[in-house]
Design brief:
Chain lengths: 211, 211
DNA sequence: GTCTATATGAAGATAGAC
DNA sequence: GTCTATCTTCATATAGAC
């Protein structure tokens, strides 16, 4: 983004304190996610927020600033919990729990819409791609890679390089089902599809898990 | 797309015969891929093609029609060769050859840009997502799935369901490197990265391939 | 068929009242 | 601080001459 994505208009305190600002941000989030950057008009945001357009401009210097505010908030919320806790169980259960958590995030409608708009606008806003990637995918990969690194000598695991194995595990979870959802072809993968996807990912990194 | 993506203005013969139409289409392709649908102006297309804007409108009824023409041509060109020929060798070599072909397509700049614009515009043009998916990803998955189905009983292979295994193989090839390229974070994956990616994919579907 | 010039409309941004 | 009303820009699309 042209402006710093980390610092939309106003101080951090002002961001939290102002209720109307939050109302506008919520409205903007809905409109941007549904219509994209180009398809969103300041009129639509103002209308949805129940305020006049001028009020929107009082809180955000322009459309890009508003967009930055929305995206920042969304990215900060992608990974909410501490992922480390999931790895405290035995390997198979730990990986299954982590996988289920990841799938639930990956396929959440809001995540999918965010993903779509980031891909769409990452050329217009050069910082956007990295900001999103660091907030979501990279955070997940790193958490899993650390777990693999700790268990690299464990004979149950088939780890070549921790980070690569982490990527591969998550790639199998995401897969083409995610692309189909992104393209609007599928709504949400079935439970069976997800279960089989998780099995495939675990089979890829653990040994002796049968055919 | 609102109009049929398969049939932009004019008959199939007219499409091939008219040289100026092709000039406009080439110019439009460059501009759309660089700037997206919203960022592209008919002025820019006309200017790049070296014709007046009116001439563009003589060949394409409107901007959407022009967009449909560009996307149709791009999608038709994604998979140019017959993929079946690649599978005539021994399993390991066959899969390696197929994988290299797929990687070269996946990471070609034009493919990446097409992918990006399709994700960006698939909500505005409902048919677009499926058209792209069928032309590229699904064609690849199906070709590989057929190969796996023919070799399902071969003890070298670790195939649960041919189509799922095909998706998994291609997911490992695509992976997060592709997302990073899509987001503008990386330019092109390194040779080592690609080689290791191909190894991982083959390891996933063949047995007894070492570690 | 192709051009120059223009109409139309939408949307980002602002002026000034309360 | 918030509103109504307005300005300005610019891109799609068209009219009419050659």
């Amino acid at each position: 983004m042209r402006k710093a994505i980390e610092h939309p208009t106003g101080s951090r305190r002002a961001r939290r304190g102002d209720a109307k600002r939050r109302t506008i941000l919520q409205a903007a989030k809905a409109v941007f996610l549904k219509s994209g950057f180009g398809g969103t008009t300041m009129d639509a945001v103002a209308s949805r927020a129940g305020v006049s357009k001028m009020t929107v401009y009082r809180h955000f210097t322009d459309k890009e600033d508003l967009f930055a505010g929305v995206i920042t908030e969304l990215c900060e919320q992608i990974i909410d919990d501490k992922l480390e806790k999931l790895f405290e169980k035995a390997p198979r259960q730990a990986l299954r729990g982590f996988a289920q958590k990841m799938v639930s995030i990956l396929y959440a409608p809001e995540t999918v819409e965010l993903h779509r708009i980031v891909v769409a606008e990452c050329l217009r806003f050069p910082k956007l791609g990295r900001f999103f990637y660091d907030s979501g995918p990279d955070a997940s990969i790193t958490a899993l890679a650390n777990y693999f690194a700790r268990n690299k000598t464990n004979p149950k695991f088939r780890i070549v390089d921790p980070r690569r194995s982490a990527e591969e595990f998550l790639e199998l979870l995401r897969g083409y089902a995610h692309l189909r959802v992104l393209l609007g072809i599928e709504k949400i993968p079935t439970r069976q599809d997800i279960a089989s996807r998780i099995d495939g990912a675990i089979r890829h990194v653990l040994i002796g898990t049968g055919k």
